[in-house]
Amino acid sequence: MDRESKLPLLAEIPAADLAGRQVLVRLDLNVPIENGQVADDFRLQRIRPTVAYLVKAKARVIILSHLGRTAGSLRPVARYLQNFFPLGFVPELDQLKSQAASLSAGGILLLENLRRYPGEAVNDQDLVEQLASVGEIYINEAFAASHREHASIVGLPRRLPAYVGFWFAEEVRNLSRVFKPGHPFTVILGGAKFETKLPVVRKFIDAADQIFIYGALAHAFFRELGYELGESLVDKDASLARPFLGHPKIVLPADVRVQNSGRVFIKRPDELTTSDNILDVGLLSVEKLLPVIGQSRFILWNGPLGNFERGFRGSTEAAAKFIAGSNAESIVGGGDTVAGDSVSGSVEPI
Fold it and tell me: Which end of the chain is more exposed for a tag (fewer CB within 10 A), N or C?
């Protein structure tokens, strides 16, 4: 993120300098797809001002994005965006150059999911050159993906004049507020990938008053504590939790909601069986969190507390409602977290 946050702003480009130029825009279109339809459009709504600005300036817009970790298709996203912009879909990378050449001023193309190409994740120079060959300007509007050293994130701004979009700049401004928080300052971390949340723990372990580690992130701690986890999801790098075991500011779930043979139970984390699957935190864990939310002056929240995809939304939605109703200044990040926040409508996402 550091490199992109230091790039000049899209707003600094005179509109006349965009007219007729081929502009590569790295967006974050990684939204949930259910039954071939966009299930949550928060991210898509947030990128619309940047795209509209480029279209109005008569740029020739080529959108790059990923969807999921592997080969999901962006076709449903293209169909959704066509409600707002005339947009052409490019299903294969080898078709991009010819379609870009015939793109009219103010026109838009969306390339299929970048993660279908192995070179994206390893910042392969050949892929960088293929993409750069159809662009004159690069704009990063994918804040949530900008910690990754991927071709479309790191390689392209080294090849083309590079800028950050409106939403990216706004997210950097919002997130910067967390470096001078009011106290009590509470950090709530959920989700599954401990490796990506580890820098947050390291950064705020001294500044925060408490750090709640819930969701599948907590399983890394349970593994290090020697608990049976059954069929529960555990980050492959669970040992990264070891330095923080027993830290007085770290709060782990007091109970968990597990599924076993189609039935749901609430158990203590240290009493699971080999066929249990943790899918959410339990009522005691929620009751432990909510009063802290009410007393906090600043809250940083990233990641859901339960498995959204399987319908375990209760704890996440309860936290969102309490944060929205509190007097705390709050910053919320992460796609599933933002989906949970939609129940309240007043938690400020990043």
Answer: N
Given a contact cutoff of 8 angstroms between Cβ atoms, the answer to whether 333 and 31 are in contact is: no
Please write the tens of the pLDDT for every residue from 48-94.
999 999 999 999 999 999 998 767 899 999 999 999 999 999 999 99
Q: Nearest Cα to 259, choosing from 251, 248, 270, 267?
A: 267
Burial class (CB in 10 A: 0-12, 13-18, 19+), 109: buried
- Domains of the chain plus CATH, in order, are 2-168 (3.40.50.1260), 175-341 (3.40.50.1260)
pTM listed for this prediction: 0.70
Length of the chain: 350
Amino acid of residue 202: R
State the DSSP string of 67-110. Answer: -TTTT--SHHHHHHHTTTS--EEE-SGGGHHHHHHTPPTT-EEE
From 212, 178, 216, select the one nearest 195 (Cα to Cα). Answer: 216
- Give yes or no for a contact between 160 and 134, defined as CB atoms under 8 angstroms apart: no
Give me 285's structure tokens.
């864990």
